[in-house]
Amino acid sequence: MEEMQRETNAQLLVGSRLAFRLLGFLTPDRMMPMKINIEAVPVSSGILRLTVRASSDEGWYLIQVSGIAARLYQRAFDRIFLSVESAVSPFTVRGDS
Q: Exposed, middle or buried, 76 (CB in 10 Å: 0-12/13-18/19+)?
């Protein structure tokens, strides 16, 4: 039972600050600089609680354009959370072709 209480955490740094600075509002979702924290905690036999937190990681700017950046990040966050949700769906059967 002690083994079940063990947590697993990971932090991913994704995207490109350079691309965001160069392309601005034209930056594709997949290139938005973000920090993604993932925490997996077993809650019982065969059941895992997965917590995913995403935050912007654009770094320091002399001038902030929050409105545009907020919309870009919301699109990127939506894409990531949709991917995670579809990957962990309880109806997904792994290994079947």
A: buried
